[in-house]
Amino acid sequence: MTEVLQLIISGAIQGMIYALIAFGYNLTFSTSKTINFSLGQIVMLGGVVGYILYIDMQTGHLKGLPFVVPLLGVLVIGTLAGALVHKTAVEPSLKFKSEYTWILATLAVGIIIKNGVEQLWSTGDYKMISPLGDEVIRIGGIGVYAQEILIVVVSLGIVCGVEMFKRRTIYGKAIQAVSEDKATASLMGIPEKFVITVSFMMSACIAAIAGLLVAPLTFVSASMGMVLGIKAYSVSIIGGLESGYGPLVGGLILGISETLTARYISTGYKEMPGFIILIVVILFKPNGLFGKKIIKKV
Amino acid sequence: MKKAELTGTQRTIKLLQLLLIIIPFTLPLWVQNEYYVHSMLGRIFIYTILVVSLDLVVGYIGDISIGHAGLFAVGAYTMGILNSTAAVNAGSTMQLFLEWPFMPALIVSVIVTGFFGFLLGFPSLRTSGPYLAVTTIAYGLIIYTFINEQEGLTNGTKGIQMAPLNFFGVNFNDNKFIWVVYPFLLLVMYLKTNLSKSFWGRAFEAIKFSNIAAESSGISKVRFKLTAFVMSACIAGLAGALFTHLDSYIAPNTFSLDFSILALMALIFGGVRSTFGNIIGMALVVILPDLFTWFKDYRLMVFGLLLLLTLFFLPNGLAGLLRKWFPKVFEEPKPIFTASDKSKIEFQMEKCVDGHIPLALDQVEMRFGGLVAVNKLDLKVQPGTIHGLMGPNGSGKSTTVNVITGLYNQTTGDVSAFGKSIGKLKPYERAQLGIARTFQNLQLFGDLTVLENVQVGLHKHYKSSFFAILLGLPSVKKEETGKQIEAYRLLEFVGLEHLANEQAKNLAYGQSRRLEIARAMALSPKLILLDEPAAGLTTSEIKEFNEIILKIKSAGIAVLLIEHHMDMMMEISDEITVLDFGKKIAEGIPSVVQKNPEVVKAYLGAEGALDA
After folding, report:
1. Biggest alpha carbon–alpha carbon distance for chain A
2. ipTM exceeding 0.95, yes/no
3. What is the count of residue pairs from A and B with beta carbons less than 8 Å apart?
């Protein structure tokens, strides 16, 4: 019983990371109806930049800088990456009618980022040290790392904070107005282009923070982002791209299904249930578990 | 109809093309170097087959797939399991070696992959764009995981070694491999070209452009999308099966997500919907890293940049660029019509003579959540009449049309047409029964020509079988010519025949509205729904429109005219139903309805009604 509980807790923590990145996908979708397919690579950028600023690559020891430094570095790189993706990939794509232009354009930016990091930094795997140490905290037989608790707190904090911001403040209402109807929002004096750019920056910042958070649990490498990006995107779809808290539920489903499969079936298959759930959701609830139903107008 | 004569230059070009096609066949005879012919060219050919497969889904259907490496893998592994031998795989964990000969194994690989494509097709019916993209990724990754993990079946990460490829005692693993691969590439390209030029190709285009307009023209989205996915998968499976013998070895790493993306890149570089583009795109992707060694490490970055540049500056890829530079070489012959194609007799239309009521709504109610858009509506359209449906904005007119055409399913009540209940039929089935419609906000297929737009409307009259089309039989060409003439006559009916070969997106507003009518008439409908046909037209254009509508009526077709425009309505309708807030408030002949106080109130407001 403890084992199952432990697996569920570990899975839920993993799921929080997915949920956090998924929330990033939802943010840009709600304002611009586009998805940043390079978000996984921005997660990686967050991990890599955090590592560079926090740890000495040669020795693998701490550089001795306070954790605020990598945190700020990650926020800066996230903002820049978000702006870059929007300017170079999304904005020019919207002139074209077909949907695949922006899908491929953001995918291309992701490929460039990944290859760039490989060539300019390294292709190796590096161990990131958690600022909270690596002792296991035991609560009634269930062990978690301090870093994992941090992940849960930060993820929930960001998701709930941004959702509150969207629902309660006037700036948040502006974002919702743009997501409902760009043209009308623009007529009401909301700078819709600016709102969209900001949503891309916010989304990328969230992804970069997710990278920094997850780094101590995995290895830091140029290839750490792709799988995380895809899984988080699945979570987005399962929860519903248009839903605010949907990613949290989607993240829990995916994370827990992974740890349980890894333990009771085989580690090789641990990603399968997530993908199968994704396909089933697409087949039966194409707008996700918590998505709004769209009425097509003619 | 006149056949387009070839000019001297065009003949030379044809000859050069033929030469270009033949050259690869001769390569094994005079080139010794195996690296460039067997390895490079062979790779380009096989991968191009995969690009052709991807083009069917991305270029024609307009769905994005980032999972084609998975389908490629299914083909390769089916071939591997069926065709490989225990002898060359000594010491592997694989238990099953069927050791089939090449051809049967190849055919089964194609069929098996086709089945996987069928499964992939289902999500595409429910969703599109970014939703479908991730589904295809997931699909590819599921297959990838499976071949990695099922060691008993696939030998896992260690991969499968293939036995040498021998036919009649001759080994084909050297440059002669081209003779095995190249014919398949040509075959696939030939089939795809035939399909794309037929009514199937137009149906794909129609679905890509507007699901709703396609269904309203009698095209089943389900059937055509699934077929496209199955075909695409079959072709990908063929590529995969051939790939096994390229290096005589397959391992899961080849079939990763990166490979799906690489194939997509090749497709975009070359340009979608171009056979020639498919091959140059893939050639670029294979050759570039080989030409520049320094390039290898930065390969993906350069490809990423190239992809961005292509997307934004060459949306039709390299093939599009070449088409622009050498229009003569790539120009498709357009049909040329002569005076004899004009209808000598008055245009023949199917009449609704069977005496059944063309359309009857029985207590139809349509709810969206709490909102009642149409409230217990009864409506009957009499044969051979123009029935007007009017009402202020938001009164439920368009919802009514969408219920009649099957875009929405009514919450309660029933719709029947020609004496049969149609309330549960799909939109395309209603269209095939003989209910045609036009759209308030135009839904033309912009990239198709005016003539082709009407041909989409003729869809249900095409009789050629799928296989006849693939093979390009003469009967198919004959049917196509016949239908082109039919379409031309329909254009004549609305006065657009001089614009037959123009792209629909270049039409003026009023012309687009006429084209919508021609396309609807192409269905040979017994009932036609005109959804605000006069919106945005000038007074003189409205007059011409009235004439067209009256001509439709005189052919015996029942018309349901949805309109705002009072004058037009009063002038040509035989009977009018007025809606307000989803409820019928008046019905009868125009002169009576016009004076109905309820109607005046709905249109002018309560105070306006007092003044009137």
Report:
1. 64
2. no
3. 132
